[in-house]
Amino acid sequence: MRVKRAAVWAAAVLLLGGTVAGCGGGEQEKAKAKGPGSPTAQKPDSKTIDSDDDHTVLRLSDGRELSLTYAKGRGLEAKHRDSATEAWSAPKTVYANAHDPCQGIEAKAYRDTVWVVAGFGPYCRDGEEPQDVLAAVGTDDLSSWATSVVSDQGFDPKPRFRDSGARVDFVDRSWIGTTTLTWKKLSGFASPTETYRPIHQWFVGRWRSQDGTQQLTIDQAAGARSARLTVESLTGPRCKGSAMLTGLDQHDLTLNNFKLEEGTKTAYCPPEDETEYSFAVDSADGPLRLVKIGNRPKTVRTYERAD
Q1: pTM
Q2: 77, 114, 157, 245: most buried by Cβ count inside 10 Å?
Q3: For 161-184, what is each residue's pLDDT tens digit?
């Protein structure tokens, strides 16, 4: 899927030192933002009638009630009833997990479709990110549940009902890009998809170090492909490799997951610690600077455009 967010976020923290029109125009702008063919989302029509860190109770639009509860050592359980005066069904395990639950269960319904998001992991109660994030969908009589689990990725989705409840998109937007986990009534959960944010156009192209020893090629992100950096030595020992690039703007671009493809690692191929360096460019024609970040950022290498 994506680079682990904990590592990428740590790099971002280092970099940063610690991203109305009228009625008619507003709707047009919203449509443009969604893009052509984007399905319209339906607003939830359920009501939360009780909730704490370990359980939540929903009332659906037809009057039914659904209770979701963390069962210690067993995971997430669900039970339902036709109305507040009826008896609850027997609890059913939605997802089995022996780890501690995180704080709270998120759940919403549209008509007879319910989405649920819940997290589990060691020390989750103490504020650490969940190790496993559960996305679940129940439909019709709520006696069965479809589930998908994203592990070790910092997944934090905002679900959306679409197609009148026949589809739910669990959407996680970050400064890296957008991860979408989609459930459809006819086919269940698909694998998560990733759309990376483009980097600033000023970075894109070929660059040559001022001392003539190294060439960089930076390619733009395209959908599920992240922006890429290729590093190649021009003199001395052979070194060629590539890495994923992510960034907020033209002043912050970080290197992740460098892979050596030819030769041996040499000076700045790659930098000795990826999290301690960033690339910066201040104008459309460069130069490109490799910066060692910290309390006093320092430019350690400069590149000029080679194309």
Answers
A1: 0.77
A2: 114
A3: 999 999 999 999 988 899 999 999
